[in-house]
Design goal:
- There is one protein chain.
- This protein has helices at about 1-20, 45-55, 85-90, 105-115, 130-140, 175-185, 195-220, 235-245, 250-260, 265-275, 285-290, and strands at about 35-40, 60-65, 95-100, 125, 145-150, 165-170, 190-195.
- The chain is an alpha/beta fold and about 300 residues long.
- The chain has 2 domains: about 1-195, NAD(P)-binding Rossmann-like Domain (Rossmann fold); about 200-295.
- The chain has a 7-stranded mixed sheet, sandwiched between helices.
- The relative contact order is 0.10.
């Protein structure tokens, strides 16, 4: 009877722990072959997440980060902080995949420190939110396989469809691309391949333009505060709540990758064209196009 009670408690505790975990939406399975992974930037939010998940899957993961408490600040120049190059060399030694979990604007400094330590057989990968410039920089710096990735979710993921865009560098062997993809599929992610240009145009519309339009909207409405407060409706409050995290916690991240996205001008021009179309107050054509998203017969 006592053994049965302990067994029930163990099951309850395990399920409760899984529900409380910030990574509970990932479906982690034990890997068939452990991969030796070095994560550069493992103190950051994305780095911490992948360190925990890949270790849970059974991979051998080591990490290295800058010696500073401000690991979330994307504006720190990595060459201006104390980095133990001996520790970096030790972390990279023997790694099959070296994963860069660093901000896009830090990539040149990281590559300057890292590339002299890499061997030609080691796979260099990243998780930057834009791909054209980072992929070109990694390919130019590393005489070996390069695989760009972009996990299309944040460090506290809540959705089940955890997609990862994969952009292989030119000449990268299929085995190297598959090795990186296995790291993500083993934690329940869905991977798909694309080019760097296709990726940057896609996220320019799906992510960056979403942020930019929210910023423009809230900046416009802010000029009317506090006079409009008595007129705020429930739908307006829902929009405020939807934009709160973007405008507070994630603003610097979005600004950084918008600046680094060479395709962003195309998305902004498309939005300007739509705004020009409503200059005379005729919203019907714009609404018909917008209704396409919601399964109506709106214009394509």
């Amino acid at each position: 009877m006592l053994a049965w009670a302990f067994a029930c408690y163990a099951i309850f505790y395990r399920e409760k722990t899984q529900r409380m975990s910030p990574y509970a939406c990932f479906s982690v399975v034990s890997c068939a072959r452990p991969v030796r992974v070095c994560i550069i930037g493992h103190h950051g939010r994305m780095g911490r997440m992948f360190t925990a998940l890949w270790q849970q899957a059974g991979h051998s993961v080591v990490g290295i980060d800058r010696n500073t408490e401000s690991t979330e600040d994307p504006h720190i120049n990595l060459l201006q902080v104390n980095i133990d190059t001996d520790a970096l060399a030790a972390a990279v030694l023997g790694a099959e995949v070296v994963m860069l979990c660093v901000p896009t604007n830090a990539l040149p400094d990281v590559l300057a420190l890292l590339v002299p330590l890499l061997q030609p057989h080691q796979v260099l990968a990243d998780v930057c939110s834009v791909k054209t410039l980072p992929l070109a920089a990694m390919c130019a710096a590393h005489n070996g396989p390069v695989v760009g990735t972009h996990p299309l979710f944040g460090p506290v993921a809540t959705k089940k469809d955890l997609a990862v865009a994969v952009t292989p560098g030119e000449g990268t062997p299929e085995t190297a691309v598959e090795l990186v993809e296995t790291l993500f599929t083993g934690i329940g992610c869905r991977v798909f391949r694309t080019t760097a240009a296709e990726h940057d145009r896609g996220v320019g519309f799906a992510q960056a333009l979403n942020f930019a339009s929210n910023a423009i909207y809230f900046a416009t409405v802010a000029d009317q505060l506090p006079g409009i407060m008595p007129f705020i409706t429930p739908s307006f409050r829902r929009r405020i709540e939807a934009g709160r995290k973007q405008m507070t916690e994630d603003a610097n991240m979005f600004i950084g990758f918008i600046k680094a996205n060479p395709e962003m001008g195309y998305a902004l021009e498309a939005m300007r064209n739509v705004l020009d179309a409503v200059d005379n107050g005729n919203l019907e054509p714009v609404v018909r196009r917008a209704q396409h998203w919601f399964g109506t017969k709106g214009d394509r």
